[in-house]
Design brief:
291 residues, two-stranded antiparallel sheet, 11 strands, 19% strand
Length: 291
């Protein structure tokens, strides 16, 4: 790799890398922070202040941590993360708008040894692909869904999404989302919580180091659900969209912590992965028809 420097190094003779380096006390430099091995070094296309980059990194960290690099298949959506396949070295499939859960189902059933996940925004998962999402969860498909909820159609002009808050101004709701016309926003975790074949559901805002640590914990549980053949798992990330919200990145973070979480409560909704929690078999008990 040659000389190793952090991204802020000003020495022209050095070759900056994505990671950071420090002096180990012996005059030698060592890397203390770098990108996950399963991620490429391509510069991301996301807007400044968007948390897609953080969530991508979390996905990469999990794939490395669980040693899943050689067996992972991710499914890309249509939307802001349409180019997600460019940031990972493992296999990715581009699905038609909203069809990610259906494509992931097919991949997992064709090759059960693969680790399969979808990476979807709110327009892709909660609007166009709502049926695929609900039925994949109802069937207990053994896949992971990483759901990025920023409450707006970010890529296509900032239209109102199923998860836009009541009163939220968008290009298609310039006076704010009106409850009497559009109804309240869809809470995906709340909606899927009634399905007994769901193994794990959780929601976390990506607004602080503490919350990012919590996101890692939730993602580990979701991945374990698939590796232990327990069924459908979804982690929802409350994400920013500074450009379409018309806010600075800092204000967008504050907006999530002060306003968005009032509607979309963070936490674990379903946990049938942790041994002490209610197992799926028990949840389904009583729903099977008897002769």
């Amino acid at each position: 790799m040659g000389d190793i420097c952090g991204p802020t190094c000003g020495e022209t003779a050095c070759t900056p890398v994505a990671g950071a380096a420090s002096n180990n006390g012996n005059g030698e430099r060592e890397v203390v922070f770098d990108r996950p091995e399963c991620m490429t070094d391509k510069v991301m296309h996301y807007c400044p202040g968007c948390t897609h980059g953080i969530i991508h990194r979390l996905v990469g960290e999990m794939i490395d941590e669980f040693g899943l690099f050689e067996r992972t298949v991710g499914v890309c959506p249509v939307g802001c993360s349409v180019f997600a396949f460019e940031y990972f070295h493992f296999d990715m499939i581009e699905a038609s708008h909203g069809r990610a859960a259906a494509v992931a189902t097919a991949v997992k059933r064709a090759d059960p040894n693969r680790f399969v996940f979808t990476y979807q925004g709110d327009g892709d998962l909660a609007a166009i692909g709502l049926a695929e999402s609900v039925h994949a969860a109802a069937r207990g498909e053994n896949i992971c869904v990483f759901f990025v909820n920023n409450g707006i159609y970010g890529m296509t002009g900032g239209q109102m999404a199923p998860t836009s808050l009541v009163g939220q101004k968008t290009t298609t709701s310039p006076r704010g989302r009106e409850l009497g016309i559009a109804g309240p926003p869809i809470g995906v975790c709340e909606m899927l919580s009634s399905l007994p074949a769901v193994a794990y559901l959780a929601r976390v805002p990506i607004t602080s180091p503490k919350n990012i640590h919590t996101a890692r914990k939730y993602m580990r549980a979701a991945i374990r659900a698939q590796l232990e053949h327990k069924g459908f798992a979804l982690v929802e990330f409350l994400s920013t969209c500074p450009v379409q919200w018309g806010m600075s990145p800092v204000k967008a973070m504050e907006y999530i912590d002060k306003t968005v979480v009032q509607t979309f409560k963070p936490g674990v909704f379903i946990d049938r992965v942790t041994p002490s929690k209610e197992p799926i078999a028990q949840a389904i008990e009583g729903m099977v028809a008897t002769p």
